[in-house]
Amino acid sequence: MKFRAKITGKGCLELFIHVSCTVARLAKVCVLRVRPDSLCFSPAGFHGLREAGLWCEVRRGAFQQFRMEGVSEDLDEIHLELTAEHLSRAARSAAGACSLKLQLTHRRRPCLTVAVELASSLGRARSVVHELPVQVLPRGAWRACLPPSLRAADASIYLPRWRTLRSIVERMANVGDHVLVEANLRGRMTLSMETEVVSIKSYFKNLGNPPESAGAPPNGDLESMVQVRVDNRKLLQFLEGQQINPTVALCNIWDNSLLQLVLVQEDVSLQYFIPAL
Amino acid sequence: MSENELDTTLNLKCKLGMKSILPIFRCLNSLERNIEKCKIFTRSDKCKVVIQFFYRHGIKRTHNICFQESQPLQVIFDKNVCTNTLMIQPRLLADAIVLFTSSQEEVTLAVTPLNFCLKSSNEESMDLSNAVYSEMFVGSDEFDFFQIGMDTEITFCFKELKGILTFSEATHAPISIYFDFPGKPLALSIDDMLVEANFILATLADEPSRASSPQSLCLSQKRKRSDLIKKKAGKNVTSQALECISRKAAPRRLYPKETLTNISALENCGSPAMKRVNGDVSEVSENSVSNTEEVPGSLCLRKFSCMFFGAVSSDQQEHFNHPFDSLARASDSEEDMNNGSFSIF
Q1: Are residues A135 and A243 in the same domain?
Q2: What gap in Å lies between CA B29 and CA B56, rounded to an integer?
Q3: Environment class of residue A111 by beta-carbon count within 10 Å: exposed (0-12), middle (13-18) or buried (19+)?
Q4: Which residue ranges in chain A fall short of pLDDT 70?
Q5: How many domains does chain A have?
Q6: Which of A90, A107, A126 has the CB atom closest to B101's CB atom?
Q7: Residue A47 lies in a domain
C-alpha cells in the first residue's frame, strides 16, 4: 500500500485546507479513501441515512503529484480512518505555504504524514511535519464508506446566494430547531419555520434548475413544491464557514425524506445529506 | 524602590497579587491616550503600593494595593556558561511555533550546530496512541546568533514558551535562549532598553544515572506525593504530577533545603571552589529530586519557573547587575549558612 500526493498551487492548497476544516466540523472521525483518481472523505461509522453525513471528493487534478498503490490490483484503494481534527489542524498550518505533501508512512504505527513547506516572511525556508495516526480499515469495512446511491431526486434546484441563505438560516436557528425546505422544478424555493409565537418564510424565485434533473415530481406537476423538514442546526453547520466560491451549488430534495446539498468547485466536490425529521 | 521622609531609597522586596495589578493596567489604548503621567511609590507604613495616574485637566486616579513582604526566590544559574546560546527575533519564533499544532504540554527542542528543531515530546506521544507527532525546523540563518556547543535535545513546557514569546513581542529586542543538557534549566532572556527579563524553565532530566544525594525530609514527602499521583491517575501521569508539584509551590519550599543538602553532599565529596558549586548545584538538585527508587524509566519533570524583572535604572545598578546571586554560599562553617541572606520558607 502506498500513497504520496503533493499540492503546490495556492488555490488548490486553500481548497484542501477548506475541505479538511469542513470535514472536521461535521464529523469527529472520518474515513479517507484513497482511490486511483481521487481522495474521498466520508463519515466513519455511518449507518445508513438516519443521520446527516458529509462526503467530499478531491479529484486528482487538484494535486501536482498523486501516486497510489492500493491493497491489491483488484482492490486498488486504501481506506484509512483518522481523527478529522488532526488533519484539519495540520492542514491549517499550511495556510500560505509553498506546498503540502501527504504520504502514508509507518512510524511505530501507520501514519498519514503531512509535510508543509513554507517560506517565512523573510523568504527563508521553513518546514513542518505532522504525523497523524491512522487506522487502516480492513476490506470488510469498505462498503460502509461509500456515499449512498439513491433514485433520482424529486426536485433539484440551484441554491440562492450563499451569504443570503446562510444569514436566513442563522436567524431561523435563533428561533427554532426545524426548517422546512421546499422547492419545485420552476426555480422556486422556500424556507420556512413556525413556532407558537412566530412564523418566518423566505421566498426565492428564478433560481434555475439543473438540466440533469430528470426526476419527475410525485404528481407530475412542475409547479408543485417538494418539501422536507430538517434539523436547522445541521443545515447551519454546513452553511457556516464555507468560504469557497462554488461553481455549482445545488440541492436535491426527496419528498419528505432527504435533503442533499451539493457544492462543486474545480476538482473538489462536497455533498451533505440531511435526513428528514 | 521606595522613598520615606528622609528621601533615602530602600530596597523593598514585596509581592503583589496579579489580580490586583492587572485590572489597573488593562486598557492599554485608553491608558496611552489619556494619561500624562504615572507615579508608582510605596507607603511602607501602610504596606501599600500606590499607583497614581495623572490625566489631563488635573484629574488624578489613585490605586492602593496591599503588598506582602517576601523574599524572592533566587536561582543559581549562570546563563553565560551555557554551551548553547541562541538569539532570535521573537516574532520569527512565534510565527514558527504557531504551525506547531500539537496540543501536548511538553515540547522537545533538538539542536545541532546547523539545525533548530522543535518536536513533540517523545514521552507523551508514546503514551497516547492517538496523538499527532509534529516536527518543525527553523533554519539557523533566521537566528541573530546561533551557537551550539553540542548536539542537545531538551524537553520543557510548551505553554510557558508560548507565553514568554507573547510577552517578548511587546518589546523590540531579540530573545536569547541559553541551555545545556537535559535536566539543566533553560533560560530565556530579553534585554530591552527599559526591561530586562529572565525566564528560567526546568527541563526534563535524562534517566537518572547519577547517584542521588541524601534525601531530606522534604524530598521524601515530595516523592510520596508523586507516588500517590502516579497510582491514582493512569495515563499521562507525568504532566499531572508536575502540575501538582509546581502549583503547590513545593519547589519553593524545597529549594533552599536542597541547596543545603547538596552542598553538604558536595562537601563530603570534597568539592572546593565556590564557582563550581554554583554551577553544579542546580544540576545536582534536579537529579536528586528525580525519583530513582520509583519504577525505572519514570521521569519527573519539575516545572520550576520563575521570572526576574529588572528595571534598568542607574540608582539600582548594584543590585540588578547580578540577578542570579546565589542564595547560599558554599562554606566550610555552619555560621555562614545561618546568615540573613539565607531564608527558609
Answers
A1: no
A2: 15
A3: buried
A4: 120-124, 212-220, 243-244
A5: 2
A6: A90
A7: yes
Single pTM value for the model: 0.69
Q: Rounded to a whole number, what is the distance in Å from the CA of A121 to chain B's nearest CA? A: 8
Q: Which CATH architecture has domain B80-124+131-206?
A: Box (3.70)
A128 and A50 in a single domain? The answer is yes
**Segment B244-254, tens digit of pLDDT:** 333 333 333 32
Q: Which of A128, A129, A135 best tests the B interface by mutation, with the highest count of B CBs <10 A?
A: A128
Domain residue limits at A35: 2-144
In a domain, A220, yes or no: yes
Q: Could you tell me if A177 and A118 lie in one domain?
A: no
| Residues of B contacting chain A (CB within 8 angstroms) | 92, 95-96, 98-102, 126, 129-139, 141-142
Report residue A125 as a C-alpha cell.
525556508
Residue among B96, B130, B133 whose CB faces A126 most closely: B96
Q: What is the spatial distance between Cα A208 and Cα B110, in angstroms, rounded to a whole number? A: 59
Residue B69: CB atoms within 10 A of its CB come to: 10
Q: What's the one-letter identity of residue A168? A: I
Q: Which three cell numbers stand for residue A267?
A: 476538482
Q: What is the pLDDT of residues A140-174, one digit of tens each?
A: 888 777 788 888 888 899 999 888 999 999 999 99
A101 and A48 in one domain? Answer: yes
pLDDT less than 50: residues of chain B: 1-8, 209-306, 311-345
Report the interhelical angle of B274-289 vs B250-269 (nearest 10°).
Answer: 120
Does ipTM exceed 0.85?
no
Interface list for A 63-102 with B (CB within 8 A)? 83, 86, 89-90, 92-93
Q: Are residues A96 and A198 in the same domain?
A: no
